[in-house]
Amino acid sequence: MSVVLIIALAAAQMQGMDHAGHRPGMTMPMPMPKPAATPKPKPRTVKRPARHRAAAAMPMPEVAACSPEHAAMGHCEAPAAIPATGPSEPCPPEHAAMGHCTAAPGDAAASGTALPAGDAPAPAAPAPTYADRVWGAGAMAPARARLRHEHGGMTFTQVMLNIAELQPRAGRDGYRWDGEAWFGGDVDRLVVKSEGDGRFGARVGGEVQALYSRAIGPYFNVQGGIRQEIGVDRRYAVAGVEGLAPYWFDVEATAFLSDRGDVLARVEGTYDQRITQRLILQPRAELNLSAQDVARDRIGAGLVDAELGLRLRYELRREFAPYVGVSWERAFGATRRLRGGSGGAVVALGVRAWF
Amino acid sequence: MTSDHDTATRFGRRNLLRAGGMLAAGACAPAWAQGGSAGIAARPEVSGNDIHLRIAHQMMTIDGHRSHAIGINGSVPAPLIRLREGQTVRLHVENALDEESSIHWHGLLVPFHMDGVPGVSFPGIAPRSTFTYEFPVRQAGTYWYHSHSGLQEQMGLYGPIVIDPAMPDPAGPAREHVILLSDHSQRHPHAIFRKLKQQGGYFNYQKQTLAGLLAGRDQRAGERIEWGKMRMDPADIADVTASTYTYLVNGHGPRDQWTGLFAPGERVRLRLINASAMTTFNVRLPGLAMTVVEADGLAVRPVTIDELQVAVAETYDVIVTPSDDRAYALVAESVDRSGMALATLAPRVGMRAAAPPLRPRPLASMKDMGMGAMGPMGDDGAMAPHDMSAHDMAGHDMAGHQMSGHDMPGNAAPGHDMAAMNDSMRNFANAPEVKRTPTVQTIAPMPVDRTGEPGQGLADVGHRVLTYRDLVAASRNPDVRAPDRALRIHLTGNMERYMWAFDGEKLNEVTAPFAFLENERVRVTLVNDTMMGHPIHLHGHYFELVTGHGDHAPRKHTVQVQPGGTVTFDLTADAVGDWAFHCHMLYHMHAGMMQVVTVRPRGEGAA
Ligand SMILES: [Cu+2]
Predict the structure, then answer these.
(1) Ligand 1 centroid to A126 CA: how many Å?
(2) Which residue of A has its CA nearest to B223?
(3) What φ, ψ does residue A331 adopt, rounded to 5°?
(4) N or C: which end of chain B has fewer CB within 10 A?
């Protein structure tokens, strides 16, 4: 079934994006054999510099009663924390490396940041509530909640009308819209999409979708929800992916299951070619597919219809860009027979706007 | 802590300067903020043991345009706070706003509950209330202060701090000026942040275009396609640009042109402070060399340069000796070269020096993507000649420029090309510490230490540019022990969604802080997995940069980690408490690039 195939392909491609580095012949060096099974991130992994291995291989010098590990566990007092500056007695590098003494000053190569790091264990992470001791937990709790909310947890909104245009035609002029709005955080969002077209004084065809959207990687979202037709009593369940493909293509692949059990699919893509800082050419393609004939809706199995558009916009502001364009569409196969050869090219005058 | 500070004598000098300023400008203005041209209001200076600060809404005028701001004691930027090493200061801060506010003393070593970060070190200053900070002044040098609440810092809530040493240096320069650099927008900061969330490249009007390609500018077609394949924009140098910002010196725009006076032949100390919200500045005085004598408030061995990059929240003291009886332009170009802050150094008020034109903006290179080791030059030193910036690409065609011929240090990987690099750009095997979240757009495949390189875009300017490796502490470091352990922290981000984090986790998602034991010495390596520089700031501490200077490592409170680069520092966790640790790009921090660092007494356990 073509629909399934498309979704599967899209999913596979996304998989490829997220699990970069699996392609055969890919030879990027990596210290670990397989990143496949999500490497469980260890808490604050301790990095052991190569230089230290050499140091560790040396015979361990006699150490003070309190080893760093023990000190870290609070079992004893570590050796004097900050050695006095100034000349000190001879200090072998191994001792200096463990912080037991200070290498002779003037020999920059043997003290301070020139020394290799040890491999003491990291302490357990305490709750960051030390300020409660001074200001009280009651005073700190709301401030702490606000801090976390403000640094990464806020929600935003965008309303984007990508296409809002008039299509002058012989006879009745037409119009067309395509836009979406989202509300939410970085990962989870509510998305409302709408598109449609019509002719003044005649039929209106279109749809509204209400979707839950979730970020599944740096570039892609999965979306699911419902679609309601405008002008026709029909509803669909919706599942799809959208995002930014390599080479800066905005892509969208969606499957629809109607309340009568019919399966449809849609694939869309746009690209913004920046001619100058404000003049942008946007090619656009949309393909609709169907798994079966739906005669009542004048849909035939296979490729239903296709639309190709080319719109040249000028960003007076980023948020407001009038455009001119051409749009070409036609139906295919069984649909073409059902619809009676509709299609052709139209000129479009419109505006792209968002806030 | 810096009694051997290389600072100027200040015996009577302040009064002398004040008098000179009055004569020169005909206004009773403190030297640091005194505008040379008529109509620029004088700014206050506060000092003493009891200092009163009042935070309130007000208007400010920049280049003739009035805009809304938040200031202190009626001043934007906030007044200069002048302290003396060894004193104990009480700062009574009245918040006259209808929202919470706070003041953080950037770079000052204070008890943690006086550090001023709401939700970390104290509850914040409630609306219409007063909070008193009290702490001993343990250091001397150039610092600054700013709000740590919401986005108030972008609204003007920042000001300079100068601390005179307990033991003045009689050989110091005769004159000094505070040069407080900042960025200001007519837009509300929340509107700026919303636009960045909606469209990451919203403010960038220097993108690569088709017209540019046809005119032979920027990358060639094949290279553009390869970068497009990675969904990487090499023109993404600064998030917020001159399309909305005016860049300021001491609160004055380029047209106002703040003027600092000198007598020809005099040594003049300039206290450079980058108090901007989002702008990395490249600072120079064409025709005048600068000698860097302090970094982040602490003395360094003098090093003479022609230009330096000042990251957000860094401070540098430089000495200049203008010998001619003429005006010099002080130019602070934003890193993306969309605009500049401009001031004048002149013997007399009213003199002006022509501002040099903005230089072409840089493009991000392969090194900025964390592929630094892939160039034939290898790890450090100057930019590799195969660095694929616009300047270097003349005569090269990226499409035919297979990387397979180059050596890859430590890795036998012949036969791969940029397609392979693309696949490697999000390989979590290169960063096991990083959580696999949508925040992580890329993992730098081969990040390298870039502390020996000039900042982004300054590799080929044709004159001396400061690098971090040029900085050597003037006195021996107070703690020269070897680190007990090493820790690696990744700086991660997603330019498309405008998400920023440490180790792939935004502050709102973090479950555990970065934990240290009291007096533990830890070698921290910051790995920048993004294509933007991040000025990383740790509150309450200094750290020693591991740049090959042993026990004279330069000590800093803020460090710029160049795109695709690493910075390693040794930290002595000697201040018990909880401390903010964050990127000082305000909107990066706001997006989540912040963490808490805990320092606990040994034996206290994980309580
Ligand atoms: Cu800070």
Answers:
(1) 23
(2) A247
(3) -95, 160
(4) C
Q: Count Cβ atoms within 10 A of the Cβ of residue B141 and give its class: 0-12 exposed, 13-18 middle, 19 or more buried.
A: buried
Ligand 1: distance of its center to the CA of B528 in Å? Answer: 19
Q: Does A102 contact chain B (CB < 8 Å)?
A: yes
Which residues contact residue B483 at a Cβ distance below 8 angstroms, ignoring those fewer than 6 apart? A115, A117, A118, B521, B522, B523, B570
In sequence order, what are the residues at sequence separation of 6 or more whose Cβ sits closer than 8 angstroms to the Cβ of residue A261?
none
A134 closest CB neighbour out of B113, B515, B605: B113
Which residues of B are less than 8 Å from A125 in CB distance?
Answer: 512-515, 598, 606
| Pairing, β B258-261 against β B340-346 | parallel
Q: Is B548 left (phi over 0), alpha (psi -120 to 50) or beta?
A: left
- The predicted-structure confidence for A155-192, as pLDDT tens digits, reads as follows 999 999 999 999 998 888 999 999 999 999 999 999 99
> If pLDDT is split at 50, 70 and 90, which confidence band does A295 have?
confident
B312 CA to centre of ligand 1 in angstroms: 10
Instruction: Compare CB distances from B199 to A30, A103, A318 and report the shortest one's residue.
Output: A318
Residues 6+ apart with CB under 8 A from B216: none
Centre of ligand 1 from the C-alpha of residue B106, in Å: 5
- Residue B467's nearest CA partner among B357, B321, B309, B592 is B309
**What number is the average pLDDT over the span B6-25?**
34
Type of residue found at A351: V
Asked if A273 is an interface residue toward chain B (Cβ–Cβ < 8 A), one would say yes
From ligand 1's centre to the CA of B121, what distance in Å? Answer: 13
Q: How far apart are CA B389 and CA B367, in angstroms?
A: 10
Q: Does A84 touch chain B (CB under 8 A)?
A: no
pLDDT band at A126 (very low <50, low <70, confident <90, very high): very high
Read off the pLDDT of each residue in B127-155 and give the average, rounded to a whole number. Answer: 98
What does the pLDDT average to over B231-257? Answer: 96
Banded pLDDT at A340 (limits 50, 70, 90): confident
A124 touches chain B (CB under 8 A): yes
Coil vs helix vs strand at B572: strand
Question: B445 near B427, Cβ under 8 Å?
Answer: yes
B433:A128 CB<8 A: no
pTM of the full structure: 0.83
Tell me: pLDDT of B347 over 60.
yes
Looking at residue B424, its pLDDT comes to: 78
Our measurement of the distance from residue B105's CA atom to the centroid of its chain's CA atoms, rounded to an integer in Å, reads 15
Residue A318 distance to chain B (closest CA, Å): 7
SS3 content of chain B, % helix, strand, coil (to 5): 15, 35, 50
* pLDDT tens track for A80-92: 333 333 333 344 4
Cα separation, A269 vs A250, in Å, equals: 6
